[in-house]
Amino acid sequence: MPIATGQQGGAKAFETDTRVVGVDIGGTGSRLRVSTGRGGRSYEVTGPPAAVVAGRSTVPDVVRELCRDFASEFGGRPRVAAAAVGMRGFRAMTQSGSLDANRVHDILAEELRTGSTAVSSDAVTAHLGALGAGPGATLAVGTGAVAVACDDVGRWHLADGMGPHVGDNGGGSWIGRRGLDAAARSMDGRRMGASPGLVQAAEEHFGRRERWTAVNDVSLFAGFAPRVIGAAGNGDLAAREILDEAARFLADGLCAVLNHPGVAPVAVTTGKLLTYAPMFRSMVLRHLLEKRDDVRVQASAGLPLDGALSLARMLAAHPAVVQEHVPLLAVRIGSAPRRVDSITLPRVVLPVVRPMARPDSAPVAWAVEVSSDFEWSAGEVPAGGMVPADAVVPLTGERLVVGRPSRSRGVVPDIVCEDTGVSRRHCEIAWLEGGWTVIDLGSANGTYVAARGDALPTEPLHPGERRWLADGDRIYVGGWTCLTAREVTASVH
């Protein structure tokens, strides 16, 4: 089903060189969204979930159908700068042989006429959507369940996400399966773990009892999870026990990734099951904070589909940093994959933009003025006033990280901000194809950009979104800090 969103102008108005596509394939449905980084209109189509039938994943078929639905609205085969797909069960399907990622790459290249494609686990896209590429942990709960974290040097860590047969503990399919089991116990007179209140709900959802033993569709089980959550909220003891066990499993997975050295004590939850069931989310967070009372829980910046778009933007704007890593991410630039040595879980290095050595030939004719902006700071000034931040920093080298230093962690950014609202690795100013750009690195409070003479910005950059800078552009970070891009003479040192 096509859904148009955003500003005026249809899909045909998109500029070829800026259009990117993100795809999210879950256990209950799929979505494709196309977007341009220049404020144009976004466009979305929806499709069916993917499944494994006779040992073969239907992901390639779902991707092709989504691409063709979009093309039919576009009026022909579109051309995009890059495309990224995030899917549930990617690791399990590729390792079992039920999915060949190359087929998905081929379909994206053929249907969208792009040579830059990424196919990944939804653990990657969920984290990019919720937290960006910065340190912290994300718990994604939908049909399945996975916890993922990125530490302060770019290593990623995963817990669970192993699929319905050996994992996904606490996810929608897991809850639904145990809810059906509780109903079956009640039907034949058992008392341990039985739920009389779920019997009618199970018959409405799965059909007559005689059919229950034949149910093996994980999406069908996941669809029953909201009924189990509802029963728990209405006082059903068996449903409450199921939910409490699920919450403990999920909190344990989140703790597992948070406990790795260098992972910031920041947690975000995402996925339909937690988004639309606040009671269940509260249970998970209560168990989490019982184990780690130092963790700061913050709102999710976006969904896995947003993360897929962020990955596509990274691929389009800075392909050199997006490398293939088995078993979480497959990348193709042109006709061949970009590979590095395979790294086994739980430590998988994924693309995070980090400072590089300064080349002698780097441009030096630009600088940023770091200052305190009293208008931007309204309502956010600390009791002691704003920390002075007035300096001119030459833009030398290829990349400069803007952030707040940490002596204990040894974090010293290239452009230091003492503003307490600035993240350790907040954003990056990078030289790309003859110009300076800024990209948010998954900061806690966002990176905002305004052109010379424009009013204060109201919308932050999406994590992974790269913005070209012109003379006089203002970058707002933290509670009061403004960085103004200036074209200066080469004598600035």
Automatic annotation (TrEMBL):
Concerning InterPro entries, the annotation shows:
ATPase_BadF (IPR002731), ATPase_NBD (IPR043129), Euk-type_GlcNAc_Kinase (IPR052519), FHA_dom (IPR000253), SMAD_FHA_dom_sf (IPR008984)
What sections of the sequence does the record tag as coiled-coil?
none
Superkingdom of origin: Bacteria
- This protein is called FHA domain-containing protein
- All residue ranges annotated as the FHA domain in the record: 400-449
Where is the organism placed in the taxonomic lineage, from the top? Bacteria, Bacillati, Actinomycetota, Actinomycetes, Micrococcales
- ATP-binding: present as a keyword of the record? no
Q: Does the keyword Phosphoprotein apply?
A: yes
- Give the record's keywords alphabetically: Phosphoprotein
Gene3D superfamilies assigned to the protein according to its UniProt record, in alphabetical order: 2.60.200.20, 3.30.420.40
